[in-house]
Automatic annotation (TrEMBL):
GO molecular function terms listed in the Swiss-Prot or TrEMBL record: acylglycerol kinase activity; ATP binding; ATP-dependent diacylglycerol kinase activity; ceramide kinase activity
UniProt xrefs under PROSITE patterns: DAGK
Cofactor section: Mg(2+)
A GO CC term assigned to this protein in UniProt: mitochondrion
EC category name: transferase
Official protein name in the record: diacylglycerol kinase (ATP)
Keywords: ATP-binding, Kinase, Lipid metabolism, Nucleotide-binding, Transferase
Length: 413
């Protein structure tokens, strides 16, 4: 009893140190609990992956070869560590022959994929930027390389499409997301997704450049410019994104005046005008399960007089977006053109920005299109747009929807 009384007096006389000690003890207990849960998840995932690795393969074929395009500096240089800790062991246990190629500079993933040979699947280990470069390199090829599946390991700080395929989070949830993405590759379930081809509109004297391909969005305006600046407020932790709108909502350096003309054609389920032939090739391996893609009806003889009808619209806004419908279930593939308000007050801008951070978007009205010609009034190196979170110079471009063009590994559901 005397010891308990003495212990209580010590805590009362040193309450500040005691409070710090309790906080440190709780934090340590949380870390230990999180590591234990991660170990349990990895043990279960390793056992499941090993079942695939223990399965016999035919004598006349080698193990399945997959190539990993790894961005080692993604997510503040944590991507390589997370890949080696949570993803690579599962791929090896499943019996895959894993070739890892690390990118060395911006645009390097594009160059790697354009010349890649001798692989049966490509896995992107990085964020939106690495994935966008990989898709561009893949679709620039004209040898039907897009028939091979593409895997996403969402190891970057921003993973738009990866988070839509595999539920993300922090801590244990993030590890669970990486395990799900790795197991989707091992199980071989696939789904076809849309992409958009973005090519500059040039005059006869100019030399046309290669097109860029994107799978999520093209963004132009003050909201995009604000989100780009959020890394400057890293010291605010979880409040960083909200503070970004407070500190930048009044700045004239943002693109408050996005104006120009768009010419667009309506969506089309497929006809003799817009059909793009994509021949099927027989797989030479039996590891992957059959694709979940359904057979599309022959559109060569379908006539749609409205398909080539073009409409023109002048716009002036501070929020211009063109998005694919990869995050939605639609009967007719289309692009979604969103043109926001022309002017926002400081309070309205902050309110709208915070709503978007929570997943709510007031701009519910949109224009559906198959092709879009964007003709901005002002363009040059000082005006930039975001294409799949990567910055490009604003210039006249033509955006064309390519429905069901990229095959991605996904969960069975």
């Amino acid at each position: 009893m005397e010891r308990i009384i003495k212990f209580g007096k010590t805590i009362r006389n040193n309450w500040k140190k005691s409070a710090v000690g309790v906080v440190a003890l709780c934090y340590g207990a949380t870390i230990v609990r999180e590591k234990y849960q991660i170990n349990v998840l990895m043990q279960a995932a390793c056992k499941e992956a090993a079942k695939y690795g223990d399965s016999p393969i035919p004598m006349d074929r080698n193990p399945t070869v997959v190539t990993v395009i790894l961005n080692p500096v993604a997510n503040k240089r944590k991507a390589k560590r997370d890949f080696e800790k949570y993803c690579e062991p599962l791929l090896h246990l499943a019996g895959l022959q894993v070739d890892v190629i690390q990118t060395t500079s911006e645009g390097n993933a594009k160059e790697i994929v354009e010349t890649l040979r001798g692989t049966e699947a490509i896995i992107v280990a990085g964020g939106d930027g690495t994935f966008s470069e990989t898709v561009t390199g893949l679709l620039r090829r004209n040898d039907d390389a897009n028939q091979f599946p593409l895997g996403i390991l969402p190891l970057g700080r921003t993973n738009s499409l990866g988070n839509s395929l595999f539920h993300g989070g922090k801590g244990v949830d993030r590890v669970k997301q990486l395990i799900e993405a790795s197991m989707a590759i091992i199980k071989g379930n696939t789904v076809w997704k849309d992409a958009m081809r973005i090519e500059p509109i040039v005059t006869e004297e100019e030399i046309p450049s290669k097109p860029i391909y994107a799978m999520t969005s093209l963004e132009w305006g003050a909201f995009r410019d604000t989100m780009v600046k959020r890394d400057k407020y890293w010291f605010l932790g979880s409040l960083r994104d909200y503070a970004t709108f407070i500190f930048n909502g009044y700045k004239e350096s943002l693109n408050w005046n996005c104006s120009g003309v768009i010419k667009y054609t309506p969506p089309c389920p497929g006809c003799n005008n817009c059909i793009r032939k994509r021949p099927e090739i027989k797989r030479k391996w039996s590891f992957f399960m059959p694709s979940t893609q359904t057979l599309q009806p022959d559109s060569k003889n379908v006539v749609n007089p409205d398909c080539a009808t073009s409409q023109e619209l002048c716009f002036k806004t501070c929020d211009f977006r063109i998005r694919t419908r990869n995050f939605e279930h639609t009967d007719v593939p289309s692009l979604s053109i969103v043109i926001g308000k022309n002017k926002y007050s400081y309070s309205e801008f902050i309110s709208e920005g915070w709503s978007r951070l929570k997943g709510f978007d007031e701009n519910t009205k949109h224009i559906e299109a198959r092709t879009v010609e964007l003709l901005p009034n002002e363009f040059g190196p000082e005006v930039v747009i975001g294409i799949d979170r990567e910055e490009f110079e604003v210039k006249p471009v033509k955006i064309t929807l390519l429905p069901k063009i990229v095959k991605l590994f996904c969960n069975p559901d």
